[in-house]
Design a protein that fits this description.
Length: 265
Protein backbone atom coordinates (compact mmCIF):
# COMPACT_ATOMS: atom_id res chain seq x y z
CA UNK A 1 0.00 0.00 0.00
CA UNK A 2 1.47 3.31 -1.05
CA UNK A 3 1.21 6.58 0.82
CA UNK A 4 -1.76 7.85 -1.12
CA UNK A 5 -3.83 4.77 -0.29
CA UNK A 6 -2.78 4.94 3.35
CA UNK A 7 -3.84 8.59 3.58
CA UNK A 8 -7.18 7.73 2.01
CA UNK A 9 -7.83 4.97 4.59
CA UNK A 10 -6.98 7.32 7.49
CA UNK A 11 -9.28 10.06 6.20
CA UNK A 12 -12.07 7.54 5.60
CA UNK A 13 -11.79 6.20 9.14
CA UNK A 14 -11.87 9.70 10.54
CA UNK A 15 -15.04 10.52 8.60
CA UNK A 16 -16.71 7.30 9.72
CA UNK A 17 -15.81 8.06 13.39
CA UNK A 18 -17.18 11.58 13.04
CA UNK A 19 -20.43 10.33 11.54
CA UNK A 20 -20.84 7.77 14.35
CA UNK A 21 -20.19 10.42 17.01
CA UNK A 22 -22.72 12.80 15.47
CA UNK A 23 -25.29 9.99 15.31
CA UNK A 24 -24.79 9.19 19.00
CA UNK A 25 -25.14 12.84 20.00
CA UNK A 26 -28.28 13.19 17.94
CA UNK A 27 -29.80 10.05 19.49
CA UNK A 28 -29.08 11.30 23.04
CA UNK A 29 -30.55 14.73 22.32
CA UNK A 30 -33.62 13.17 20.74
CA UNK A 31 -34.33 11.12 23.91
CA UNK A 32 -33.82 14.02 26.37
CA UNK A 33 -37.20 15.39 27.62
CA UNK A 34 -38.09 19.02 27.40
CA UNK A 35 -37.10 21.23 30.36
CA UNK A 36 -40.77 21.78 31.13
CA UNK A 37 -41.22 18.05 31.62
CA UNK A 38 -38.35 17.99 34.13
CA UNK A 39 -39.93 20.61 36.35
CA UNK A 40 -41.18 19.09 39.65
CA UNK A 41 -44.67 20.27 40.49
CA UNK A 42 -44.68 21.90 43.93
CA UNK A 43 -47.84 21.51 45.96
CA UNK A 44 -48.89 24.63 47.73
CA UNK A 45 -48.36 24.24 51.45
CA UNK A 46 -51.46 24.11 53.54
CA UNK A 47 -52.01 27.28 55.49
CA UNK A 48 -50.76 27.04 59.08
CA UNK A 49 -53.57 27.36 61.54
CA UNK A 50 -52.53 29.35 64.57
CA UNK A 51 -53.35 27.55 67.80
CA UNK A 52 -55.45 29.46 70.33
CA UNK A 53 -53.36 31.03 73.06
CA UNK A 54 -53.98 29.88 76.62
CA UNK A 55 -53.96 32.71 79.09
CA UNK A 56 -53.25 31.34 82.59
CA UNK A 57 -55.57 32.66 85.25
CA UNK A 58 -55.19 32.55 89.01
CA UNK A 59 -58.77 31.41 89.43
CA UNK A 60 -58.32 28.43 87.09
CA UNK A 61 -60.67 29.93 84.41
CA UNK A 62 -59.71 28.93 80.88
CA UNK A 63 -59.69 31.33 77.94
CA UNK A 64 -62.60 31.13 75.46
CA UNK A 65 -61.92 31.28 71.70
CA UNK A 66 -62.17 34.69 69.96
CA UNK A 67 -65.67 35.79 68.88
CA UNK A 68 -66.94 34.79 65.46
CA UNK A 69 -65.82 37.18 62.71
CA UNK A 70 -69.37 37.19 61.31
CA UNK A 71 -70.82 38.36 64.61
CA UNK A 72 -72.06 41.94 64.37
CA UNK A 73 -70.99 42.98 67.85
CA UNK A 74 -67.78 41.35 69.12
CA UNK A 75 -68.72 42.31 72.69
CA UNK A 76 -71.79 40.09 72.63
CA UNK A 77 -71.39 36.56 74.02
CA UNK A 78 -70.60 33.87 71.45
CA UNK A 79 -72.62 30.67 71.10
CA UNK A 80 -69.50 28.66 70.17
CA UNK A 81 -68.31 25.93 72.54
CA UNK A 82 -65.28 26.98 74.68
CA UNK A 83 -61.98 25.41 73.66
CA UNK A 84 -60.76 22.73 76.07
CA UNK A 85 -57.37 23.76 77.45
CA UNK A 86 -54.98 22.51 80.12
CA UNK A 87 -54.89 24.47 83.34
CA UNK A 88 -51.18 25.33 82.98
CA UNK A 89 -51.27 27.76 85.88
CA UNK A 90 -51.86 24.93 88.34
CA UNK A 91 -49.44 22.32 86.96
CA UNK A 92 -45.78 21.82 87.83
CA UNK A 93 -43.05 19.31 87.05
CA UNK A 94 -41.19 17.82 90.02
CA UNK A 95 -38.10 15.59 89.78
CA UNK A 96 -37.90 12.83 92.40
CA UNK A 97 -34.94 13.20 94.76
CA UNK A 98 -33.28 10.63 97.02
CA UNK A 99 -35.56 9.83 99.98
CA UNK A 100 -38.74 11.12 98.33
CA UNK A 101 -42.08 9.30 98.44
CA UNK A 102 -45.33 10.08 96.63
CA UNK A 103 -47.11 10.82 99.91
CA UNK A 104 -44.37 13.24 100.99
CA UNK A 105 -44.42 14.98 97.58
CA UNK A 106 -48.22 15.25 97.74
CA UNK A 107 -48.03 16.81 101.20
CA UNK A 108 -45.33 19.23 100.08
CA UNK A 109 -47.29 20.50 97.09
CA UNK A 110 -50.66 20.60 98.84
CA UNK A 111 -52.26 17.92 96.66
CA UNK A 112 -53.33 14.31 97.13
CA UNK A 113 -51.67 10.98 96.43
CA UNK A 114 -54.54 9.94 94.13
CA UNK A 115 -54.17 13.15 92.11
CA UNK A 116 -50.47 12.47 91.46
CA UNK A 117 -51.17 8.83 90.54
CA UNK A 118 -53.90 9.80 88.05
CA UNK A 119 -51.92 12.69 86.55
CA UNK A 120 -48.92 10.45 85.84
CA UNK A 121 -50.66 7.13 85.08
CA UNK A 122 -48.82 5.32 87.88
CA UNK A 123 -49.72 1.71 88.72
CA UNK A 124 -47.74 1.27 91.95
CA UNK A 125 -47.56 4.32 94.23
CA UNK A 126 -44.76 2.68 96.24
CA UNK A 127 -42.35 2.51 93.27
CA UNK A 128 -40.59 5.75 92.34
CA UNK A 129 -36.99 6.35 91.32
CA UNK A 130 -34.50 9.19 91.59
CA UNK A 131 -34.76 11.48 88.57
CA UNK A 132 -38.37 10.51 87.75
CA UNK A 133 -40.37 13.51 86.46
CA UNK A 134 -43.87 13.89 87.90
CA UNK A 135 -46.69 16.19 86.85
CA UNK A 136 -48.07 17.86 89.97
CA UNK A 137 -51.62 19.19 89.75
CA UNK A 138 -52.51 21.70 92.45
CA UNK A 139 -51.47 25.05 93.80
CA UNK A 140 -47.84 24.02 94.30
CA UNK A 141 -45.58 24.45 97.26
CA UNK A 142 -46.94 27.67 98.71
CA UNK A 143 -46.09 26.95 102.29
CA UNK A 144 -44.55 30.43 102.63
CA UNK A 145 -47.92 32.02 101.90
CA UNK A 146 -50.07 29.77 104.13
CA UNK A 147 -51.78 31.53 107.00
CA UNK A 148 -51.87 29.38 110.16
CA UNK A 149 -55.43 28.34 110.92
CA UNK A 150 -54.82 26.22 113.99
CA UNK A 151 -52.79 26.88 117.11
CA UNK A 152 -51.29 23.82 118.79
CA UNK A 153 -51.38 23.93 122.54
CA UNK A 154 -48.02 23.59 124.30
CA UNK A 155 -49.46 20.81 126.43
CA UNK A 156 -50.46 18.78 123.36
CA UNK A 157 -47.60 16.55 122.14
CA UNK A 158 -47.01 16.68 118.39
CA UNK A 159 -45.25 14.20 116.11
CA UNK A 160 -42.95 15.40 113.34
CA UNK A 161 -43.96 14.31 109.86
CA UNK A 162 -40.49 12.85 109.36
CA UNK A 163 -41.02 10.49 112.31
CA UNK A 164 -44.23 8.93 111.07
CA UNK A 165 -43.73 5.26 110.31
CA UNK A 166 -40.93 4.71 112.88
CA UNK A 167 -42.12 1.93 115.19
CA UNK A 168 -40.88 -0.17 118.09
CA UNK A 169 -41.81 -3.58 116.75
CA UNK A 170 -40.67 -5.87 119.55
CA UNK A 171 -38.32 -6.40 122.51
CA UNK A 172 -36.59 -9.79 122.37
CA UNK A 173 -36.09 -11.92 125.50
CA UNK A 174 -36.68 -9.19 128.12
CA UNK A 175 -34.81 -9.95 131.34
CA UNK A 176 -31.94 -11.83 129.64
CA UNK A 177 -28.93 -9.53 129.31
CA UNK A 178 -27.05 -11.35 126.54
CA UNK A 179 -30.00 -11.56 124.12
CA UNK A 180 -32.23 -8.67 125.20
CA UNK A 181 -32.73 -6.25 122.28
CA UNK A 182 -35.22 -3.66 120.99
CA UNK A 183 -36.18 -3.76 117.31
CA UNK A 184 -37.05 -0.43 115.64
CA UNK A 185 -38.40 -0.46 112.06
CA UNK A 186 -39.01 2.21 109.43
CA UNK A 187 -42.37 1.54 107.76
CA UNK A 188 -42.44 4.90 105.93
CA UNK A 189 -41.33 5.63 102.37
CA UNK A 190 -38.49 7.99 103.30
CA UNK A 191 -35.08 7.70 104.91
CA UNK A 192 -35.31 8.79 108.57
CA UNK A 193 -32.36 10.12 110.55
CA UNK A 194 -32.56 9.22 114.25
CA UNK A 195 -29.59 11.38 115.22
CA UNK A 196 -30.34 12.77 118.70
CA UNK A 197 -33.45 10.62 119.22
CA UNK A 198 -33.92 8.69 122.50
CA UNK A 199 -35.20 5.25 123.38
CA UNK A 200 -36.28 5.25 127.00
CA UNK A 201 -37.96 3.07 129.54
CA UNK A 202 -40.74 4.96 131.24
CA UNK A 203 -39.38 6.19 134.59
CA UNK A 204 -36.08 4.50 133.75
CA UNK A 205 -32.84 4.82 131.78
CA UNK A 206 -32.65 6.08 128.20
CA UNK A 207 -30.38 5.63 125.20
CA UNK A 208 -29.50 8.51 122.81
CA UNK A 209 -28.86 7.63 119.17
CA UNK A 210 -25.87 9.01 117.30
CA UNK A 211 -25.66 9.73 113.58
CA UNK A 212 -27.77 6.91 112.20
CA UNK A 213 -30.26 6.75 109.30
CA UNK A 214 -32.89 4.06 108.79
CA UNK A 215 -33.95 3.36 105.20
CA UNK A 216 -37.54 2.53 104.18
CA UNK A 217 -38.42 -1.03 105.19
CA UNK A 218 -35.18 -1.45 107.18
CA UNK A 219 -34.83 -2.18 110.89
CA UNK A 220 -32.42 -1.29 113.68
CA UNK A 221 -31.59 -3.40 116.75
CA UNK A 222 -30.56 -1.87 120.08
CA UNK A 223 -28.94 -4.56 122.27
CA UNK A 224 -28.78 -4.07 126.02
CA UNK A 225 -25.42 -5.84 126.39
CA UNK A 226 -21.98 -4.63 125.31
CA UNK A 227 -20.67 -4.94 121.77
CA UNK A 228 -19.39 -3.15 118.70
CA UNK A 229 -21.92 -1.06 116.78
CA UNK A 230 -22.70 -1.99 113.16
CA UNK A 231 -24.98 -0.50 110.51
CA UNK A 232 -28.01 -2.42 111.84
CA UNK A 233 -27.04 -3.22 115.45
CA UNK A 234 -26.28 -0.86 118.30
CA UNK A 235 -25.18 -1.74 121.85
CA UNK A 236 -26.29 -0.03 125.06
CA UNK A 237 -23.33 -1.44 127.08
CA UNK A 238 -25.39 -2.19 130.17
CA UNK A 239 -24.37 -4.68 132.86
CA UNK A 240 -27.89 -5.86 133.68
CA UNK A 241 -31.19 -6.20 131.79
CA UNK A 242 -33.31 -3.11 131.15
CA UNK A 243 -36.67 -4.60 130.23
CA UNK A 244 -39.26 -6.77 131.94
CA UNK A 245 -42.94 -7.53 131.42
CA UNK A 246 -45.15 -4.47 131.79
CA UNK A 247 -42.42 -1.92 131.03
CA UNK A 248 -43.26 0.78 128.49
CA UNK A 249 -40.61 1.61 125.89
CA UNK A 250 -40.89 5.03 124.25
CA UNK A 251 -39.17 6.40 121.14
CA UNK A 252 -38.70 10.20 121.35
CA UNK A 253 -37.41 12.68 118.79
CA UNK A 254 -34.92 15.48 119.41
CA UNK A 255 -37.70 17.87 120.56
CA UNK A 256 -39.03 15.34 123.07
CA UNK A 257 -42.08 14.43 120.96
CA UNK A 258 -43.38 10.88 121.32
CA UNK A 259 -42.84 8.98 118.07
CA UNK A 260 -43.99 5.52 119.20
CA UNK A 261 -44.42 3.45 122.37
CA UNK A 262 -44.42 -0.27 123.11
CA UNK A 263 -45.50 -2.23 126.17
CA UNK A 264 -43.46 -5.32 126.96
CA UNK A 265 -45.85 -8.32 127.06
Amino acid sequence: MNRRQLAFVVVLNALISLVVALAVVWAVEARRPDPEALAIPIRAAAPITELPLVEPANSGVTTNPPPDATQANPNEPSNAEPTATLDLANQQIYVIQAGDSLSAVAARFGTTLDAIIKANGLTDPNVVFVGQRLVISGQGDNSDNITPTQTVSESTPTTELIGQGMLIRTIDTPGTLLTEAVQIVNESNVVVSVNGWRLERENGPNYTFGEKSVFPGANLWLHTASGDDTTVALYWNQTEPIWQSGNIARLMDTQGNLINSYTVP
